[in-house]
Design goal:
This protein is mostly beta strands. It contains no helices and eleven strands. Strand 9 and strand 10 form a beta hairpin. The relative contact order is 0.32.
């Protein structure tokens, strides 16, 4: 079981940037992929981006390609999400989780953390 704490959310205007951070703990030696997901009010949780623990394989949802960058800080053991050119439709609570892809769909494997709220608004 991997436990996570997400941080870095906030309120920004369209076009601005935010950097989210995820700190996993517990059985981190067994991690294959870590991923960021998000859930907007009234919508299903959706996949945003994933990275292997080694950092050598990265996948993005089409909606964030070219704007978001997922990375892993080996020294701090965090998984970060740099979000640029933010849009109102990026407003959501963002969660990270150990993840697995099955038939092209990404799933979180452990209990969900509290997430971090990102609000894009004028």
């Amino acid at each position: 079981q991997v436990h996570v704490v997400e941080s870095g959310g906030g309120l920004v205007q369209p076009g601005e940037s935010l950097r989210l951070s995820c700190a996993p703990s517990g059985s981190i030696w067994g991690i294959d992929h870590m991923a960021w997901f998000r859930q907007a009010p009234g919508k299903e949780r959706e996949f945003v981006a994933a990275i292997t623990w080694s950092g050598d394989n990265i996948v993005y949802a089409d909606s964030v390609k070219g704007r978001f960058t997922i990375s892993r800080d080996g020294a701090e053991n965090t998984v970060d999400l740099q979000m640029n050119s933010l849009k109102p439709e990026d407003t959501a609570t963002y969660y990270c989780n150990r993840a697995r892809v099955v038939a092209g769909d990404w799933y979180g494997l452990d209990s969900w953390g509290k997430g971090t709220l990102v609000t894009i608004s004028t």
